[in-house]
Amino acid sequence: MQNFSERLRYRREELGLSRLDFAKKLGLTNPSQISRYESGKNIPGAQILIKIAEILKIDLHWLLTGQSSPNTVEVAKTLTRVISGYLMAMYVENSKLDFECKELLSKKIVPIEDLPVDKTLTREEFRDAERLQELQNELKAGQFLYEELTTLQKIIKQKYLPSP
Known about the structure:
mainly alpha
């Protein structure tokens, strides 16, 4: 989106607002004024611009320039740092879980759900089999969350942080 009028129209349509509804929300008596804004024939004044940003729930700086505001960039930087911290903590925790998992597997322990129905276990073998199952489930959940956070971090970087 190259200019104000394109961004305005894009966001209005994204929210499913007709020109008439949008004009009413802005307090304009003539909905054709919206058409003039969206065609680039007219530029709204400061008070209308502020109302537009509020109604469309968008950053005024983005609406005018197509770029994220400095505040948005700072928030994005903070978010990526926080996510990085979580990812590191998850990596450490998953390493511990993985180590414990490997120890149990080295004892020839089988996860509880993979045991044959007719297999008789001692209490310790049963506890180990349950623990291995728990560890494997935690590792799967951790891997899923890790992938989701990594994806979120990439999206934030691509959308809000300029490339060096």
